[in-house]
Protein: Threonine dehydratase
Amino acid sequence: MPDSNRANASNEPDVGDVVVTVADVLAAQARLRRYLPPTPMHHAERFGVMLKLENLQRTGSYKVRGALNALLAARERGDQRPVIAASAGNHAQGLAWAAYRLGVQAITVMPHGAPENKIAGVAHWGATVRQHGNSYDEAYAFARELAAQNDYRFLSAFDDPDVIAGQGTVGIEIAPHAPDVVIVPIGGGGLASGVALALKSQGVRVVGAQVEGVDSMARALKGDSRLIDPVASLADGVRVKVPGFLTRRLCASLLDDVVIVREAELRETLVRLALEENIIAEGAGALALAAGRRVSGKRKCAVVSGGNIDATVLAGLLSDVRPRAPRKPRRRTQELHPVEPGHSKVEFAPVVELPNPITVDAPVARHTVIEEEYTW
Structure:
C-alpha cells in the first residue's frame, strides 16, 4: 500500500501535461497477464458485498501491478536504469518482486521503524534495502537525492502514469462481474485513479474511502492543500500527507464520492472480515469494506487492497475488538403449486414475509422453500 507521506509539495516532479487513459490501462493488462494471474472475487454474504481479493496478490498487495507495469514499460522504451523507490512496505515489496522477475536492479529506501516483516520481504527478492531517517518524509527525500546523484529512475508509489495504469488492471478484472459501484481505499490515489479509469466508461460508480484524520485526498479535492500530518491509524498503508498531483487531477474528474470512516469502524470491519469470512486483511485492505455501509448500491464491490498485517497487531485486534453480531437474515418463503397433469410449468406463489421463528402448516400438496438473504 502507499505507505507514503511527502515532505512537501516542492519535492514532487512537475506532472505537466502527463495524461493517463483507458488505453494505457489496457496496455498494462496485456503486459501483466503473463506474470500475474487474476485475483479471485469473493461474495461476502454477511456484508452483502463482493470483494476483490488483492490480499492474495503476489507479495500480498495490489502494489506489484503498478511496479511491474512500470518496469515493463521502461524496458519497452529502452530505459535500463536501476530503479529506486521510497516506501515503508507494500510498494517496496512489489518493486522488489518485479525487479527480481525482470532482472532489474532495484533499491528501496525504508525508514527506521518500518515493519520487520516488510523489510525482510524486500530483501528476500534481492532488492537493496537502505534504511534512512525516522519517517517516510526523510526516506523519500534521501531516495530522490540518490536518484539525482546516480541517474536512477525514481518510481513513485502512486504519482506515476505507468503505476496508475498498472493499478487500473484491478478494475478491468472487476468489470465482468457487473457491479454498479466499486469502493477503493485512497492513500496517494494511484489505485482509485486506475480503477476509475477502467470502469467509468462502463457506467460504474467509483467511490474512494479514507479514515478520519488520514484524509489528505478528500481535503485536496475540496481545495484544502494544507500539509497536515496524518494521525496514527490501523490503515498505515494509506497515511499520505500530500496526495499525488497526477492522481489528484484524475480523482477530481473521475471519482463519484469519497467516504470518510471512523477508526473504530475500520477495526471492527477487519476483525469481522477475519472471523466471518476467513479473510486476513491489513488495515488499509479493510478500509473499502468499512466504507461499504455508507455507500448505496445493489451490486457493491469493495477492493481488499492488501493482507500484509503484522501478526502481533492482528492478534491484539482479535483479542481486544468484540464486533457486534450481524443482523439476522431476512427469511422469505416461496410456495410451489402442484403441477397439473399435462403441464410442465411450475408457478410460484407470491413471496410472503414470515415472522421469526417460522412455522408453516402447508398442505401436503405444497412444498415450502426457504431462502436466506443476508444484509449488512
